[in-house]
Amino acid sequence: MKKIHILPTIVLSLFVLGIFFTQVNTFTSNTQHATTLKSDIAVPLSGDQLNARVASLPPPTEKVFLMGGNNAVTNYNDIWTSSDAISWNLIQQHAGWSNRTNFAAFYFQDKIWVMGGVHAAGYFNDVWNSVDGINWNLVTSNAPWSAREIYAYTVFNNKIWLIGGHYSPFSPYVGNEIWSFDGTVWTHVDTNSAQAGIQDAPWQNTKIMTSAVSHNGMMFVMTSAGNSYSNDIWATPDGIVWTHVDTNPTIVGIQDAPWGPRAFSSTTSFNNEIYLTGGNSTSSGTLNDTWVSTNGVNWSQIAAGSPWSSRGWHKTFSLNNTLYLLGGGDISWQNYYKDIWLFNTTLSTWVNTLSLVPWNSGRMGHQVVVTPISFGLPDITVTDLKWQEPIWGVPIGPGHNNPISQSTSNKYILFTATIKNDSAVPLAIPANHKMKLFSGTAPSVLAVNNINFGTSVTIPPQGTHTFNFSSQATPNMRATVGAYTLTLRADTSNVVVEKNENNNRIVKTLVIQ
User: 456 with 8: CB under 8 angstroms?
Assistant: First the structure.
């Protein structure tokens, strides 16, 4: 069954023949239903135009969260969100977790997760999650892995993976330590089950992998800091068995990638390719090149010098089928960036979005997390939607159907809607909330009156609530055989607009047989 993602207010609209006037009527029905519920129909309405630079993009299905990071002055724990990487809203000035940089963040199991990292007072091994990006829950203040920063991380095979890192400005390193998390239990992954006491990955402990990416059923880690920078690539189908990727099979003894030793790059899987951008190198300082690979083995350089300034500790991310690059800093620790670039796949070049971001200064070591557009909003399905059988009988067919409403003393059509809250967010419906009924093709013909609930209702996560309604009709009004639609809406102040939905709506079809 299709879902609709709405604000914590619901507007219900009914499209039927004739003009309906509305009032609340509590009832009990013990008769059989005159209708059956048919399949859902998606009815797109006109959406908001995106920024002119990306106006050709379809309505967004995802949004991005920017959080944390640092510059020369401070560490951050603010949270910003956007559905186009152009217009941003501050949703939390100070999150529940401490200011930090070089931490990990994920969208996993319908939550945003934050863990680890560092700030001036030391290193973290805490774990937090949130169902909306605003309110945060401390899962643990002391995960089984040691407090650390600068590690590789990704979501792969329905688990969170943390790979390597270090927990001192100089040492010690835990570069080949691998942990996985299924949402409940952390596991120190044993990559050498045949050798007792040896669990860690086959690369050196002093090699701190700084990039990980899940791509086409494989997990890749690449670019590393530590005693020196490197350009080796390791791949695994399960997190246990690792292979040193040979990017030059025709040359014996040379396995490493053509993009040269580096660390603090950003890697992203986008359009069935892995994109690697920037980072710091030992020979050239901070970089601004872009490399791409379909399989993690064969790499091509798209641009030796991209139009954005050389940088590391930046983030690339895929949002609504577009690749973006955001922020970062250079190896001098003097320049911090807050610019946002998008990648034009047709021209194979980066384009400055010219986004006037509202945060005050550039940052590095921040995190971006992409979620469905509905994240943080109530997510509902209608599990039961019926017209009740009139007391005078069931409509019996074309040309012979009984009136829906017959007597002047009982001029009501009764219907029921059972709503299930499928989200992790409670769905609160205030007492003064109104449901609107429409006659004709909504929203062109508005109802004369509204239905008031009269009492507040809160549907808990995964809970249901049944609403009973009645609609006043004209005497002897008949309905021909056909489909009649009941449409869920959002926002009582403007029934056309659903937040972040670009005015899409879902209708349920009721059929009189």
Answer: no
